[in-house]
């Protein structure tokens, strides 16, 4: 069985978190385009949703790390 360092696990979790945030941002962009928003508005909404999803995910990961410690 392979053993992973803490840094490897953290990098894997951040990679999955980044993919999740990209998916959420893309969904927000698609919904904005369906609503008829301009390209600039879509990019702005995607950026805001990506940043808020990433912040929320990191807050939850920090909470879990503190709770499991």
How far is the N terminus from the C terminus?
Answer: 24 Å
Largest sheet: none
> SSE order, as H and E?
HH
Tell me the strand percentage band.
under 5%
Q: Count of helices? A: 2
Q: How would the blueprint of this fold be written?
A:
Elements: H1 6-34, H2 39-67
List keywords for this structure.
mainly alpha; 84% helix; single chain; 69 residues; elongated
Précis, in short:
The chain is mainly α and 69 residues long. It has helices spanning 6-34, 39-67.
Structural features, described:
Helix content is 84%, strand content 0%. The two termini are 24 Å apart. The longest helix has 29 residues, at 6-34. With 69 residues, it is mainly alpha-helical. The protein is built from two helices and no strands.
């Amino acid at each position: 069985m392979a053993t992973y360092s803490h840094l490897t696990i953290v990098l894997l979790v951040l990679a999955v978190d980044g993919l999740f945030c990209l998916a959420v941002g893309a969904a927000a962009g698609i919904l904005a385009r369906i609503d008829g928003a301009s390209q600039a508005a879509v990019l702005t909404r995607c950026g805001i949703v990506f940043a808020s999803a990433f912040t929320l995910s990191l807050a939850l990961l920090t909470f879990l790390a503190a709770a499991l410690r």
